[in-house]
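User: Let's play a game. I give you a shape written as tokens, and you guess the letters that built it. Ready? Here's round one.
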């Protein structure tokens, strides 16, 4: 490497490290006055003290990591904005349907709600295991990989695994040191910087092509009406897309955990609605426009598009700042998923299968360390993916619709046994696995995977109800089993 390029890389690294330390200092100054009692609620729900601002910030940055910035821009088409636009609907459903349910149930994890609904722990254990499967084998390593890839592409000349290890270790430090409270505060402070500079990238990118995003770009990369063979066929917006959003925003532990950490329902809803406004007003542009501009400038370069564009349009004196913003986004996302995974293990597995937890902080630290090592070790697995975001969405289907089926049956019906719900979840997992790894590659079923998610969900619900009736002899009754939120529900 020429001396000038090496010096620029060192400056980027120094600025990135410096701003990372500043965010850590700001986080410490914010949370240091809080009292810690070492309880599960303290570690995994921030003691129920998150204001709406930190709920909004934490939800936004838990979702917005390099999976979105690198992965969606890597598709280099406007069509991918539908993931974020439809997320607005998912957040509204979380705010007005699921938040009151979770607060009324007074749960730490979403899986505890399933146990309450079914009056049995088997379904809770299975769903928690599927959540952990996704977090450990997919979300954590994929997030570290995409973050490290971007930093390397943007000019930080270090090995991919070294960058991933740095991101993972800093995320683990937040999780160990302050639990969800520290993670949420750090996510909020980092999110302000990430969003600001991501918007700046959009402006600079458009300026680089004289504000003509269409010049030289094929129509299929500009349309918002997806063709049947596109990543998001238009018809899927009315089939599987809405259920994917309900699963992700309303039953997915790393997201719902933030909404459950406010003092009451109203504060939580304010935070979720603020996150929804950010989702619809800012996020769609920053995850697709740079990718299309990169296609104009460099051609079809997949997941390298965002990093290369940033290196082209961002002034050199800001490159280190943006590297720090991206690092912060990855660290925040990783820390949030780690905290959620540790919570699921502690609440759903350790007490039940290992023994009573004597020290919640110590257990959280040990499990976080294990997750950090496994996540870093799995990073090279994702290096062979052509599109990280499409790969994540397809793998997500293995557990998302089966898990959602357990919530659908539990919330909409009474009189269903836990064993029947387990059959429904297992059926959905096996069905989607057969579709993904056998039928679709062989051309036996050519239906788009988002469409197939509806089939997976519907047949999983049907399997649970059928087994409950014809095998276990139960009689399910359609009953939302809800009542209007009362005054005493609004406090936790």
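Assistant: Ready! My guess for every position:
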């Amino acid at each position: 490497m020429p001396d000038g390029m090496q010096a620029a890389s060192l400056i980027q690294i120094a600025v990135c490290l410096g701003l990372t330390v500043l965010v850590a200092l700001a986080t410490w100054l914010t949370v240091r006055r809080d009292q810690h009692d070492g309880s599960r609620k303290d570690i995994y729900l921030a003691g129920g003290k998150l204001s709406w601002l930190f709920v909004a910030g934490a939800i936004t940055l838990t979702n917005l990591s390099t999976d979105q910035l690198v992965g969606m821009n890597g598709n280099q088409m406007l069509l991918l904005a539908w993931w974020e636009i439809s997320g607005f609907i998912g957040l509204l459903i979380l705010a007005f349907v699921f938040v009151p349910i979770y607060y009324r149930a007074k749960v730490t994890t979403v899986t505890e709600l399933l146990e309450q609904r079914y009056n049995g722990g088997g379904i809770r254990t299975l769903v928690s295991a599927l959540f952990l499967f996704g977090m450990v084998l997919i979300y954590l390593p994929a997030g570290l990989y995409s973050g490290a890839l971007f930093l390397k592409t943007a000019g930080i000349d270090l090995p991919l695994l070294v960058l991933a290890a740095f991101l993972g270790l800093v995320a683990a430090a937040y999780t160990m040191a302050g639990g969800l409270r520290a993670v949420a505060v750090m996510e909020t402070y980092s999110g302000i910087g990430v969003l600001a500079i991501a918007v700046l990238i959009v402006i600079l990118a458009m300026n680089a092509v004289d504000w003509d995003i269409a010049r030289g770009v094929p129509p299929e990369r500009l349309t918002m009406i997806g063709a049947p063979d596109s990543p998001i066929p238009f018809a899927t917006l009315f089939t599987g897309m809405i259920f994917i959003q309900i699963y992700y925003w309303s039953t997915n532990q790393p997201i719902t955990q933030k909404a459950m950490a406010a003092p009451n329902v109203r504060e939580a809803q304010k935070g979720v609605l603020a996150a929804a406004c950010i989702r619809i007003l800012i996020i769609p542009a920053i995850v697709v426009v740079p990718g299309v501009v990169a296609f104009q400038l460099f051609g079809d370069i997949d997941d390298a598009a965002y990093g290369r564009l940033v290196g082209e349009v961002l002034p050199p004196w800001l490159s280190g700042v943006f590297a720090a913003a991206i690092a912060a986004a990855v660290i925040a996302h990783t820390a949030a998923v780690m905290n959620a995974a540790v919570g699921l293990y502690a609440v759903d597995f350790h007490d039940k299968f290992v023994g009573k937890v004597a020290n919640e902080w110590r257990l959280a630290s040990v499990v976080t360390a294990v997750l950090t090592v496994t996540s870093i070790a799995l990073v090279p697995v994702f290096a062979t993916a052509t599109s990280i975001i499409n790969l994540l969405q397809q793998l997500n289907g293995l557990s998302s619709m089966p898990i959602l089926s357990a919530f659908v049956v539990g919330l909409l019906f009474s009189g269903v046994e836990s064993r029947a719900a387990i059959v429904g979840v297992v059926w959905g997992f096996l069905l989607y696995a057969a579709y993904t790894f056998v039928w679709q590659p062989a051309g036996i079923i050519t239906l788009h995977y988002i469409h197939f998610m509806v089939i997976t969900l519907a047949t999983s619900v049907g399997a649970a109800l059928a087994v409950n009736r014809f095998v276990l002899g139960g009689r399910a009754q359609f009953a939302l089993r809800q009542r209007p939120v009362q005054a005493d529900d609004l406090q936790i």
